[in-house]
Amino acid sequence: MLNALNLYCMIVIRGIQQFATYRTNIFTGIITALFALGARYALWLALFATGNARDTTLEETMTYFVILGILMVWSAGFSNYSNRIGNDIRSGDIAQGLIRPRSYHFQVIAGMHTGAIIEILTGSIPTLIVAAVFINLLLPASFMAFIAFILSVAFGAVIYILIDLTISYSAFWLIDHWYTSWYRGALFMLFGGTALPLWFYPQWLLTFSNLLPFRLAFFSPMEIYLGRIYGTNMLVILAMQVVWIGLLFAIERFVWSRVQYKIVVQGG
Asked: What is the pLDDT, as a whole number, of residue 104?
């Protein structure tokens, strides 16, 4: 356990040092994040000015996207598991990864977390500071909502990773992987609230989204944070996340047990 933690820290620190070697990377990340914040704020400001946005406020919506951005960075990393696994399959590095002492999943996750930490430092934190000063971000609805939010975020991250890993395994059969991250992103955008809060959805699409696990990764934690889910309903969401984690883990393990017999290295 201690050796694994030391190795994880070494991978993360080495990645951060490599990124920090070029200062332009840091400044570019900050400028890009702030530009994206300004563009999103301008778009939602224009929408709310029309009077068509109901049952929410500009501050609540901007708080949703700013906090959501941080959650997505930590869960998805600067890149994503789909691209990493697909690239390893295409290059043949997957063979070496599978025979190393540490599990292949440990290697992938450590590498992704390096990118996530870099993105948080250069993108998420500057965005959070600027948004808190100029946009009046909302605090958690209550102390209990904050505690439930933290638990829900942890469960949501596991749900996201399990879904992403399972989707990425399709590259073992189809070799190419360009589409895996696109499909994953599209599913979370449509059913998970990463592009638009689900409270803007028509009732039929909202009902369908509630039957799927995607909303439990990011949208449900944010609803708890904002006080849209409260009381015993918070416990219901946490219980649903635990159930979906168990189901998705079983699916991921089953698929992984099959894909290891489907490794094909191009050119070899």
From this structure: 64
As a whole number of angstroms, the distance between CA 16 and CA 189 comes to: 29
Q: What is the pLDDT of residue 98?
A: 57
Q: How many residues are there in the chain?
A: 268
Domain assignment present for 265: no
Helix (H, G, I), strand (E, B) or coil at 52: coil
Tokens representing 4? 């694994």
Domains in the chain, number: 1
Give the three-class secondary structure for 137: coil
Is 157 a member of any domain? yes
pLDDT category at 67 given cuts 50, 70, 90 is very high
Q: Which amino acid is at 227?
A: G
Q: Cβ distance 15 to 111 under 8 Å?
A: yes
The answer to the question of residue 195 being in a domain is: yes
The whole-angstrom separation of Cα 102 and Cα 204 is: 46
Average pLDDT for the chain: 80
Q: Give the SS3 label for residue 227.
A: coil
Q: Taking the model in full, what pTM does it have?
A: 0.80
**Predicted pLDDT of residue 23:** 63
Query: Which residue has better confidence, 150 or 77?
Result: 150
By residue range, what is the domain housing residue 10? 2-259
Query: Which residue type is seen at 18?
Result: Q
What distance in Å separates the CA atoms of residue 21 and residue 23, rounded to the nearest whole number? 6
What are the C-alpha distances in Å from 176 to residues 170, 201, 206? 9, 34, 33
Answer yes or no: is 126 within a domain. yes
